[in-house]
């Protein structure tokens, strides 16, 4: 250690030492903060990991809905399932699988699919995480209303456009697009209010929480958009094979309900 007898130098040395200690403390504090931040980030990443039990349960619920729909529509179940195991050709099997999920979806089928998906997701979520049961049920209510209300509005408005028998084809297309946009946009706003009212009065009347519309809620309206495409533009929907992938689109609503914390 450097030692000096000069009072001025001693004072400078003290100031230098104080500054050095202060600097070291700041660095140590910053490092500790960084460690905490990294730890919290890791926790957030863990929370965002795929919830496999919920996904499996949601898939089972959705498949059960597909089987139920095929049953009441009078479609063959046993024979179609047998087709999946008979052929060794990949293309043939893929075609058989897509045909199996082609359930000619309309509003009724949408409601059945969403119900099966949400019930499956809730079952998987509650079994693995009972502490957050109320939050899962509330999210399930929101997800169902967020399917039912927009889909009902879109279906009703498209039917009105069809019944109006507009002579100008371009005007008809514009009217259909307007019906879809109005149905989905207005339906989301109505479903949010409705689900909040149900959740705060029935599911958990002590919480009085409000579920607001999130960005992913808008993205998840792809199921309503697909039905709108099938109803309004059936030829285009058939070319895009939209009717054959509709059941897959409903996995999201059940999964969101089941993984809710």
Give a nutshell description of this structure.
This protein is mainly alpha-helical. It has helices spanning 7-47, 52-72, 78-86, 90-100, 107-128, 133-164, 169-203, 215-219, 222-232, 234-239, 242-249, 251-258.
Explain the overall architecture.
By secondary structure, the chain is mostly helical. The chain has a domain of 175 residues. The protein is built from twelve helices and no strands. Helix 5 packs antiparallel against helix 6 and helix 5 packs parallel to helix 12. The longest helix has 41 residues. The radius of gyration is 29 Å and the shape is globular.
Topology diagram in text:
Layout: H1 7-47, H2 52-72, H3 78-86, H4 90-100, H5 107-128, H6 133-164, H7 169-203, H8 215-219, H9 222-232, H10 234-239, H11 242-249, H12 251-258
Helix pairs in contact: 2-5, 2-12, 3-4, 5-6, 5-12, 6-7, 6-9, 6-12, 9-11
């Amino acid at each position: 250690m450097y030692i000096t007898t000069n009072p001025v130098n001693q004072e400078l040395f003290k100031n230098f030492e104080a500054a050095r200690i202060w600097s070291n403390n700041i660095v140590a504090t910053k490092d500790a903060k960084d460690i905490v931040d990294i730890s919290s980030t890791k926790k957030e990443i863990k929370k965002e990991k795929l919830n496999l039990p919920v996904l499996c349960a949601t898939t089972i619920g959705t498949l059960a809905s597909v089987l139920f729909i095929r049953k009441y529509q009078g479609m063959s179940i046993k024979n179609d399932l047998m087709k999946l195991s008979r052929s060794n050709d990949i293309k043939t099997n893929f075609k058989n699988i897509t045909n199996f999920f082609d359930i000619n979806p309309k509003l009724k089928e949408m409601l059945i699919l969403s119900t099966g998906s949400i019930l499956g997701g809730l079952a998987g979520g509650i079994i693995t995480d009972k502490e957050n049961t109320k939050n899962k049920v509330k999210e399930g209510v929101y997800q169902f209303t967020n399917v039912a209300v927009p889909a009902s509005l879109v279906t009703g408005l498209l039917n009105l456009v069809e019944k109006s028998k507009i002579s100008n084809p371009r005007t008809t297309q514009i009217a259909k697009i307007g019906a879809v946009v109005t149905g989905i946009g207005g339906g989301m706003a109505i479903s949010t209010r409705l689900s909040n009212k149900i959740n705060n009065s029935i599911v958990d009347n002590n919480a009085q929480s409000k579920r607001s519309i999130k960005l992913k809620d808008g993205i998840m309206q792809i199921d309503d958009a697909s039905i709108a495409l099938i109803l309004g533009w059936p030829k285009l929907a058939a070319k895009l094979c939209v009717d054959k992938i509709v059941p897959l689109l409903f996995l999201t609503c059940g999964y969101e309900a089941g993984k809710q914390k």
